Amino acid sequence: MLPDFRVRQRDYLLELSRSLTEELDLEKLLARALRFAIEMLAGQAGIIALKEDGWRVAAAQGIAAQFLSYLTPLLAEENVRELNVTELNRMLKELTYTASMGLLNGTALPLAAHGQVIGVIFIFRNYQDLFTPNDRVILQSFADQAAIAVYNARLYGQVSYEKQRLDALLDSAADGIIILNFYGIQRDARFFDNPNEFRPERFSPENEKLIPKYAYTPFGGGPRVCIGNQFAMMEARLIVATIAPRFHLSLAPGHVVKPEQVFTLHAKYGMRMVATQRERVLAY
Ligand code: HEM
Predict the structure, then answer these.
(1) pLDDT of residue 68 exceeding 70
(2) pLDDT in tens, 122-154
(3) For ligand 1, what atom is nearest to the CA of residue 231?
(4) How much is the average pLDDT of 8-24?
(5) Digit-coded pLDDT (tens) for 153-189
(6) Which residue minimizes the CA distance to atom 12 of ligand 1?
(7) Where is pLDDT greater, at 99 or 103?
(8) Is 265 in the pocket of ligand 1 (CB under 6 A)?
(9) Quick one: average pLDDT of 84-112?
(10) Domains, the chain, ranges and CATH?
(11) Ligand 1 center–CA 226 separation, angstroms
(12) Most buried residue, 9, 78, 94, 220, by CB count within 10 Å?
């Protein structure tokens, strides 16, 4: 049978993970995680501070406002960044001692998500009983839940920001038309290695499958995609297959080839070629 405090810890963690899926209000979630952690550690007060541009206290319980000002320098030192828990706790001990004149005693753990410290949780007791390693294990479980809540909230924030951006883009696009910068996308190193290099093998049937959707869209995309796509490709093949076996084509001397992005890519001054008849027609 689990000891009583383990049962409570499990119930609290379960409640937190349920709230994580139901509740989008981060401050509320953090306040709840903090309350449970304080109770489990038989503490009197606690704080969750988050690292954003600077540090911000996101949840506090049982803390006198003036005490918060003592924490600012501790957080500003960014000791938590390196996950240096020992150092953080040493400073916290000093700080709680000075700020509360020996009346408080505290422990802290970083909130970490994907190997990055995104916040820190402090728990204080008003009696001289040191926090044990077991206390820290318990606190860690609440710190982990709080970190997930923060991570999710930030992800959610990013997604809704992206959505707003897209909505704004669609709102400002005349008749819902968006003109993509095909030229830019198709020369973006995120999608193509050495994008400015002439490498026709990028488009071999096996390689073409590896190109992300919409990274290569000479015929546009979506519901208004070019309906002449297949026809144009077939036409191009027929033209090459008809001319190339009979003529050798070379660029007219001195002719300047300048790419010009209109809607599709053009050669600004056309492509003046010299056609030399082959002595015998090339066979396939
Ligand atoms: C290499 C040749 C061609 C290229 C690069 C090309 C490219 C494009 C592009 C980029 C669009 C806009 C798609 C969008 O709005 O997302 C388009 C639309 C269209 N293309 Fe082509 N096209 C080619 C040949 C053709 C041919 C041969 C035909 C007809 C036989 C054709 C008929 C159309 C039509 C009707 C649309 C408008 C589709 C719509 O808005 O519903 N295209 N094309």
Answers:
(1) no
(2) 888 877 667 788 888 888 888 888 888 888 888
(3) 27
(4) 76
(5) 888 888 888 888 888 877 777 666 677 788 888 889 9
(6) 220
(7) 99
(8) no
(9) 69
(10) 4-163 (3.30.450.40), 179-217 (no CATH), 218-284 (no CATH)
(11) 3
(12) 9
Query: Cα 27–110–53 angle (5° rounding)?
Result: 60
Cβ 216 under 6 angstroms from ligand 1: no
Measured from the CB, is residue 234 less than 6 Å from ligand 1?
no
The per-residue pLDDT for 230 is 94
For residue 268, the CA-to-ligand 1 centroid distance in Å is: 20
- CA separation for the pair 235, 66 (Å, rounded): 78
pTM over 0.85: no
Distance 178 CA to ligand 1 centre (A): 15
| 62 within ligand 1 shell (Cβ under 6 A) | no
Q: Whose CA is nearest to atom 40 of ligand 1?
A: 224
- Ligand 1 centroid from CA 231, angstroms: 10
